[in-house]
Design a protein that fits this description.
A: D-Maltodextrin-Binding Protein, domain 2, D-Maltodextrin-Binding Protein, domain 2, B: mainly alpha, globular, DUF112_TM (chain B), transmembrane (chain B), transmembrane helix (chain B), DUF112 domain-containing protein (chain B)
Chain lengths: 324, 499
Amino acid sequence: MKLASLAATCLALALGAAPALADTAYPSKAVTIVVPFSAGGTADIIARMAAEHLQKKLGQPFVVENIGGGGGVAGVEKVVKAAPDGYTLALASTSNLSVHPTLYGAKFPYQTLRDLKPISQVSVVPNILVINPDKIPARNVPDLIAYLKANPDKVSFGSSGTGTTQHLAGELFMQRTGTKMVHIPYKGSSAMLPDLLSGTVELSFDNVPLLLPHVKSGKLIALAVATPDRQDFDKNLPTVAETVPGFEATAWHGFLAPAKTPDAITDKLSTEIQAFMKQPETIKKMQELGMTPMATTPAEFTDLIKSMTVQWKDVIEKGNIKPN
Amino acid sequence: MDLISNLALGFATSLSLYNLFYCFIGALFGTLIGVLPGLGPVATIAMLLPITFGLEPVSALIMLAGIYYGAQYGGSTTAILINLPGESTSVVTALDGYQMARQGKAGKALATAALGSFFAGTVTTIFIALFAPPLANLALQFGPPEYFALMVLGLIASITLASGSLIKALAMILLGLLLGLVGRDVYTTEARFTFDLENLSDGLQFVALAMGVYGIGEIVRNLETPEQRSVAVSKVGGLMLSKAEFLRITPPVLRGTGLGAILGILPGGGALLSSFASYALEKKLSRNPAEFGRGAIEGVAGPESANNAGAQSSFIPMLTLGIPSNPVMALMVGALVIHGITPGPSFVTDKPDLFWGLVASMWVGNLMLVVLNLPLIGIWVRLLTVPYNYLFPAIIVFSAIGVFSVNNSTADVLVMAGMGVFGYVLYKLNCEPAPLLLGFILGPMLEENLRRSMLLFRGDATQFLTRPLTATLLGIALVSLIVVLLPNISRKREVVFKE
């Protein structure tokens, strides 16, 4: 008896995995959301919030699995190699999708739009340009550019690591303004912060939640935000783009599925995720976390990945950042 | 007085029945899960983090802190009983703790660890209450050049970890440094020694390396000579310390607490160094250093106190500057952020109930740990009487689960297996693994800070000597090197003269 029912379950699972049937029945079993970072980070929090919503709406468990390591490569790779049946999803970030495949070259295990199918972008994590006021006299972006031009290679800018949006933001800034600074990478933003506070490194582009308490205390001064538009957390803070037209260097997150997942599934998920991201509670929670909630269609998310891949590829090549 | 009223507020918060309950739950779960081989504080907290999402921020933080201490203590338990250090800090505990266990003194080693930790926890709680805000500035005095000098000092001190040949110890440190290079370079992102395996791009995982070299290697050794183990099992008794032993552990506990409390403040690996530093210090001060590595109780007392004091004072940069000094603290910041609280300079004034509640709960948590663990010692020790035929497969299974759980990576389990073979080879060659592990931990930090300093100095190395703190630390390192080498030189001279 038991064996028979087990066999029946296996059969049902196997059938469920076939794309043709999955359209109508999806989801008929637990869905795994792979977060390619460790638990407790912003990506993890978004994934858990969304999982709770999806579980309620679609009636099957949505389980968050954290696969950190290799800057997220291992986690994304797992989704790339998973069956394209909608039961394995990824919540990935800018660096996973628009930077790493270029940065790490031909041997890299995936190409984002060849191997993955975008579902929805869910967040923008704005980077802000901050300086240590004891070390840099400038108090706005034009003055900063003038100061950097007068003092080439004198200022060090800290980042959370080579190839992160924080690093590439600095490279993009130098390339667009024709200035020169020395890049000092760290293992993560929080390792960089003490040196920024003490003035060992004088400037940084980094996330709002990390820096805002220190901007409020006056230890650091925020000069501008690296998003296309001014942000809600401080409408008085100008954008870098107001001085350097077209400047955009933010981190964002979004959901993706393996490339061959049927449209019916990704569209269904995208509709639910967009609805969730538009709820007032979600928006409030995201803003508390220092993120701007986003709710985009698969096509919009695809365009974002494409345009950012082009932008960062250009920066990486011009800045000669590639390892080999 | 401010301190009294602040602490009163803290205890009022942490002693509420509700928070006391979560403190207890945290310490209990932390101990139970932490005692599984390979499941250190990071993995334990990561697993239990989602539970705290629904709690009040104070309760969540108190519970997480409880898990942290509990898991850390659990890690020492496995280090002592089965030579499985699941955390970098318990590598040192394994050195003498496991030897004590083999001599039938496992109970005493565990009691020493518990009491030393409790004492260190109590003192450091007061230390944090008194000095947390001013001490935060000390953390900012340490830039990359200072960390580089500190790592140099640490590496030299690590030579003393070995009880055998100096040449072999040096070779082990260098091998450890090389193993530490595996993975993507922080500066160029160039993959080094990864053989194009994406799994190695983050480097070798410490837990896999330590558990392989120690735990799995130890199992192979034991299976080779089964009679050795039966000795340990036959005399397990004597759980409590004698008066003489109390007197013996008092000075190491005091020194360890001091070292740990100070080093723990440095976010770039200070707490990590404290247990190594304490071991090196005790060995240097001991009247019979030859006993170290063969079951010296001081070798458990000092490092365990230092490790707990360091673990606790590493809260200082997190709470006062918002800088998490280790992965556990990063997880705690994550937990706070989920509750809409960002730790930072204004944390103490904005959320006094949270800050002082946590400080007070540190002490409550430590007390609970002692109350919880002293009776458990008897049970843990009895674990050793389980026939080895049943015990060792269980250890291997739990180790594999533990290593897997850190990154959900099967490659790490393979690394552990490979390192087990490597550990056995080291044993056969009479090479001690402790200096290797220290080299592995310090190497990457040494390289990172050296290169970062050189970038900041724009290539001018003389600036290492013009910064007072860096120059002082490098000076101490030079003196220590001479002190370490002197007895060897004189011994060699004796040998030469004899001929």
